[in-house]
Amino acid sequence: MFNLAIDSKLRGCDLVNLRARDVTHGAQVLARAIVVQRKTQRPLQFELTEPTRAAVTAWIEKAKLKPEQCLFCSRLAKSPHVSTRQYARIVHQRVAAIGLDPTVYGTQTMRRTKATLITKVFDERQHAACRVTSSRLKP
After folding, report:
1. What is the DSSP letter of 33?
2. pTM score over 0.85
3. 33 — phi, psi (to 5°)?
4. What is the rounded distance in angstroms from the CA atom of residue 77 to the CA atom of residue 129?
5. For the segment 97-123, what is each residue's pLDDT rounded down to a tens digit?
6. For residues 27 and 39, what is the distance between their CA atoms, to the nearest angstrom?
7. Mean pLDDT, to the nearest integer, of 78-83?
8. Roughly how many angstroms between the first and final C-alpha of the chain, as a whole number?
9. Contact 80, 74 (CB under 8 A)
10. Domains in the chain with CATH codes
11. How far is residue 127 from each of residues 62, 91, 104, 120, 123, measured CA to CA in Å?
């Protein structure tokens, strides 16, 4: 769930409503998926990293999901997927379990994490390039 939340940058309501067919083609998990967001009614394309694809594949096999079923099924018979509130509770519990402050990290943080990671990698590469350039300029 968390890998998919980070890769997709979807809002909680869209994440919990994902169906197996949204991220798979046959038995294969897609490298890129497109989901129409509920709030904006606009399509959002996102890439699934290899660890996420492996995790989703394992989850679909373990849960024996059919393409039309929600990825994160509810235990309640009347609801096809976990609620956004339940998703928020899961995030809260996992954040606390790894020793972070749950009041600082939540479902919105999951949407912003990938952008932060990409920026961090880009900044590190940019700093490395500057160091290489400045070392070449020294006599």
Report:
1. E
2. no
3. -135, 155
4. 56
5. 878 787 877 776 766 665 455 455 555
6. 30
7. 81
8. 53
9. yes
10. 2-137 (1.10.443.10)
11. 43, 33, 29, 11, 6
